[in-house]
Structures are given as C-alpha cells and as structure tokens.
Request: fold
Amino acid sequence: MKAIRELNHFLPELYREGKISRQDVHFIFGKIREILESNKKYQSIYPELNLFCNWCFHPKLSASKTIFSALIRISKSIAYALDKDMNEEDKVIRTKEFISVSANILNIPKLRLGMKSVLESFDIDARIVTEKAWWDSCMQLLLQEVSEKPLRFPEDVVSGELTKGLAYKAFQELMKISDNSNDKVISLEIKADDREKQYMLHLKTLSGLTFILALLEKEEDAAYSS
Reply:
C-alpha cells in the first residue's frame, strides 16, 4: 500500500533529522488516515485515532459517533455535578468527577496506543509513539493542528430542522439527560492559552454557557514501556 511505503520512507528520515514540524504531523496523520480507510476494522477498533486523523483535515467535525458519544458523556457528568438535591460534600466530589471526565474525554493515552498498534501492525518504525520526547513533540503540534476546529452537533439538528439520522438520534439521547440546558454540551473546542502555556477545552452548552478546563494530555514516563 502506498501510504505504508511512504511512512516507511518518511519516518526514518524524520528520526535522522531529529526534529518534527506541524507539516510533518499533518503528513503522518494523513497517511495513517489512508491506512484506516483501507482497513475499516481499524476505524472501529481505534476510534480515538480515527477521530484525530479526521480532525486534522476538517475545519469542524459534526458527523462522528465518537464525537457524539464524547459530548453525551461530558453532559452526563455535568448533569451529575449540577444535581440541585445533593449536599455540599457530594457537590465537591461530583464537580471533581466532571472535571476529570471532561479533561480526559479525548483519551490521548488511547490515541497513542492505537497509533502504536497500527504502525507496528504494518512494520512501520513507531518511535514517534514509543519514545516520550518524540510523542510529546508530536502531541503539541497535533493539538496546534486541531485547535479552534470544533467538534459539535450539527446546527440543523440543534435547531430542530433535521429530525433523522445518526446525529439526530444522538441529540435526542442528549436531550433526555435532564431538563437543564446548562448541562447539554453541543460542542467541544481546543484553544491555546498562551498565558498558561497549555491547551484548554471549551465546552459550549445548549444554553450558551461555556465551561473552560485544562486539557490533560500527558502520561507517566512508565507508560512508554507498553
């Protein structure tokens, strides 16, 4: 397959040069996307990898089961945290749970493991995911690539104009969570916070309320032995 041959040529050259650019990341994820599209089973086995591969190439994404599941999962955690009938101690615990769920919703550790598995399945040199320095650099550039490209429910589904299809069914599930529009997240966007030198998640709800949280994207060093 052409994409495999191209990665087998490109990655060793990249490692020899000892540095990676945003253009390189775009190329790598583009070729992995071609591999996933030619081997459909990988798209379902590695949904995080498939999501990021598509995310790199679209100004916004609104037609993915993985996206809808993530937005529903975040919304449920917010609804749980905003339950007005709980005491103050439970409120603190549930708020921490919401922050943890939201900050980890993109599951970057699983993205790395999925990418590692796919590369190794085709005997492609996987140092970009098995060596921490390479992966940290790759992730920073990948987050630049996908920043300000929202993951969202389609606008015609949210407005009620479209009443069929996968997005509509997922939106109906979202609406059943509670009667509070403050807990229904309809879009997720990554934005850089230059003051804090990190990336933030912006979660916009049906009511227009936006939750802003730090994105968790680092693993312990020991994880790279797996």
Remarks:
- Residues 22-38 form the longest helix (17 residues).
- Residues 2-218 form one domain.
- The chain has one domain: 2-218.
- The first strand starts at residue 151 and ends at 152.
